[in-house]
């Protein structure tokens, strides 16, 4: 066997207890873990990945390889900027996998939450696989959406109704009706919603720094924005999401 194999492992939204039995088995199958270094401000994200490995891997001997994340250009063409960034990441990953993982070896990328939901890992590995001989599989993980609704003790959907999963940019451009989960929103786009819109917000879900707020946009919107700004300044990064439900 000369090809290298990669596990893409969803590790949940922050609480090590979210890691599934399937993920634990995949962790124990890997010799090299690749992680994107995003600077000192986000070093605790790599530290949490290391903590998960230390907790669940039964035999020592695995290695962590931290990769410098290519800068993402600011462009008016959002899709073009993301495509260029993914291509740059693919080059970094292909070089690292070829250099750090022996032929026939097993490596892993640990994806925050679930690899299928607003995560670039699978798209980038597809590009890597076109350049070097690798195979890969995907281990699903607990998403921020699941963690958010569990921590607020609410169902995701209204009875028999759909749910939109979108981003802050799309919410600003198109709005929503019914229920919507909003991710990747650095601009508190819920401010554009009607004041009687219900919101359930969470940040750093599943970690010791978890923040939870619920109410209507009119009641708690400014409080959420203030909490978010303070937390981001304190930690240097923030991962948050929220569920909106339009008033009847």
Report the average pLDDT across residues: 93
Relevant CATH superfamily of the largest domain: Tetrapyrrole methylase, N-terminal domain
CATH uppermost class of the largest domain:
Alpha Beta
Question: What count of domains describes the coordinates?
Answer: 2
Q: Which bin fits the share of residues in helices?
A: 25-40%
Shape: globular
Spatial strand arrangement across the major sheet: 3-2-4-1-5
Q: Specify the CATH architecture of the largest domain.
A: 3-Layer(aba) Sandwich
Instruction: Report the biggest beta sheet as strand number plus sense, adding barrel if it closes.
Output: 5 strands, parallel
Protein name: Precorrin-6A synthase (Deacetylating)
Domain Tetrapyrrole methylase: 6-220
InterPro entries: 4pyrrol_Mease, 4pyrrol_Methylase_sf, 4pyrrole_Mease_sub1, 4pyrrole_Mease_sub2, CobF
GO biological process, one term: cobalamin biosynthetic process
Structure description:
The protein is of the alpha/beta class. It folds into 2 domains: 4-139, Tetrapyrrole methylase, N-terminal domain (Cobalt-precorrin-4 Transmethylase, domain 1, 3-Layer(aba) Sandwich); 144-245, Methyltransferase, Cobalt-precorrin-4 Transmethylase, Domain 2 (2-Layer Sandwich), CATH 3.30.950. Helices cover 36% and strands 24% of the residues. The chain has 7 helices and 10 strands. It has helices at 21-29, 43-56, 78-100, 121-129, 144-152, 168-174, 217-235, and strands at 4-10, 32-37, 63-68, 106-111, 134-139, 163-167, 179-183, 198-203, 211-216, 240-245. Strands 3-2-4-1-5 form a 5-stranded parallel sheet, with helices on both faces. The protein has a 5-stranded mixed sheet with strand order 6-7-10-8-9, with helices on both faces. α3 packs across α4. The longest helix is centred in the middle third of the chain and has 23 residues, at 78-100. The protein is globular. It starts with a strand and ends with a strand. The model has no long low-confidence stretch (mean pLDDT 93).
